[in-house]
Specification:
252 residues; alpha+beta; 2 domains; five-stranded antiparallel beta sheet; two-stranded antiparallel ribbon; 7 helices; globular; Cytochrome P460 domain-containing protein; Cytochrome_P460_sp; signal; Cytochrome_P460
């Protein structure tokens, strides 16, 4: 009888030890599994670049003035021109196709008649692939430029957030205006600009001089202290003056 009790007690002790070992093994396996999942999750999140980190790909469109202004907005003292860099982009949209690779959309913003900033978005095949699917805006990248057309310090991630709700319109806020834009206005504008009396005035022999600011109140101009501009500077200065005259109508 005594031997049976000893055997039974030993058997119960072995069962208890086995159960304890099994529990410890299960806890260890669960802990390892949890750590692996956390590690896997961390690795997955590390696959994607910070949103907006590709902004350096977007350069200022040097031929901006050759683009097409397909939309304008006026809000109080703010005036905005929206450019697209090609006629083909407008034609694609109006034919029901996506905007082609190479499309550049530029917002030219004015406040009180003075240029305030440029916001540029550009689409290229393969762009945006470094971002997470939840954050990327198709193949678009964005950049903010100062009035001097230099890169501005800004959080470009805000541009992605602003355009994210326009996925249906290829992430464009002005898609409706582009669809409705009359391409005939371009040819008509080109014809009217060539027919205008101003276009017939020869300016090749004009001399445009930049006078120092401190001489503005002087009635006499010292020609030696004035700077005669070359042809490129002259054209830009005339364009700036005409643009200010054009924008002045929105202030009156």
């Amino acid at each position: 009888m005594k031997k049976r009790l000893i055997h039974s007690f030993a058997l119960l002790l072995l069962l208890a030890l086995f159960s304890l070992t099994a529990c410890n093994n299960n806890d260890t396996d669960a802990k390892n599994t949890s750590q692996q999942e956390e590690s896997s999750s961390g690795a997955k999140s590390g696959e994607y670049a910070e949103i907006g980190s590709g902004a350096n790909l977007v350069k200022f469109p040097e031929d901006l003035e050759k683009g097409i202004v397909f939309a304008t907005y006026d809000r109080g003292d703010i005036h905005e021109n929206i450019y697209v860099n090609s006629r083909e982009a407008i034609e694609a949209v109006q034919n029901g196709d996506e905007l082609p690779s190479g499309t550049v959309i530029t917002l030219e913003g004015f406040r009180d008649g003075e240029i305030e900033h440029y916001l540029v978005m550009e689409k290229r095949t393969g762009w945006g692939s470094q971002y997470s699917p939840e954050e990327r805006n198709g193949e678009w990248e964005y950049q903010h430029f100062t009035p001097n057309r230099e890169v501005a310090k800004d959080n470009i991630g805000r541009c992605f957030s602003c355009h994210a709700n326009e996925e249906r319109d290829d992430y464009m806020n002005s898609m409706d205006q582009m669809k409705e834009f009359d391409l005939r206005e371009i040819s008509q504008s080109n014809k009217s600009s060539s027919d205008t009396p101003l276009a017939a005035i020869p300016t090749e022999h004009w001399k445009v001089s930049e006078i120092s600011a401190y001489m503005n109140d002087s009635k006499e101009v010292n020609k030696e202290e004035s700077n005669v501009m070359d042809d490129e500077e002259k054209v830009k200065k005339i364009q700036d003056v005409l643009l200010k005259m054009y924008l002045q109508q929105y202030k009156s």
